[in-house]
Amino acid sequence: MSTKKKKVKKRYERWTPLYDKIDNFPFISRYQKKWKKNALEALDLSDGDKVLDIGTGTGEILPWIVDRMEEGEVIASDISEGMLERARGRLKKLENLPLGVDIKVVKDDIESSKFPDDHFDKMIATFTFTTVPHLEKAVSECSRILRSGGKMIILDTGRPDSVYGYLLFYPMMISAKVFGKTHIDRNVKNALAEKFEVQPIQKNMMGMAYTLECRSP
Ligand SMILES: C[S@@+](CC[C@H](N)C(=O)[O-])C[C@H]1O[C@@H](n2cnc3c(N)ncnc32)[C@H](O)[C@@H]1O
Questions:
Q1: Ligand 1 in reach of 126 Cβ (< 6 A)
Q2: Could you tell me the residue ranges of all domains in the chain?
Q3: What is the CATH number of domain 3-215?
Q4: What does the pLDDT read at residue 192?
Q5: Whole-angstrom distance, CA of residue 184 vs CA of residue 210
């Protein structure tokens, strides 16, 4: 495992107990939950789909995924065991899980994934692609495991499209790098465009949060 990856993994293991508390902070939570739910709507889940939530973290979107399906396969993956434990705990608390949906929470590194070629119909990653240490490797693996014609939705953070946005962006960028090993200044869209047909579908906070629809050719 590369040094960069060890640092990301360690960072998320360490932040696990605080992660949901920060995510549930009123200002952050209100917007993030809305963006995540909109991203999930755009994924347009159908019964029978094989779905992957990449870098699931504490699995916040898992209840919303299973709520939208009667049958199929849902896999939530992450590189951090601590985050995955929280995700498993979240699922255990759910009542009336649909019997026809096979749900697994597994450790997987999206830069060298263990899933077979063309396995998934739908994939989603919320705030993961600015965190993975080697973005190009992750994009390449996503294109390998998503079937041809399959859909992937990416929700993430980026540079603002207004000069006023930079007043907020620079302090956010520095604290994200220092505390979260997260690169919100990354051009995720350009990296994805190497392997997918990419369509921007939503923009929030002067472009600092965006949703992309990626189609596997
Ligand atoms: C900012 S968190 C987002 C978590 C969750 N998707 C959410 O929206 O709350 C980024 C997650 O990506 C995971 N991650 C980082 N690098 C990864 C990799 N190479 N493979 C899989 N997961 C990774 C981290 O462990 C962390 O849980």
A1: yes
A2: 3-215
A3: 3.40.50.150
A4: 98
A5: 11
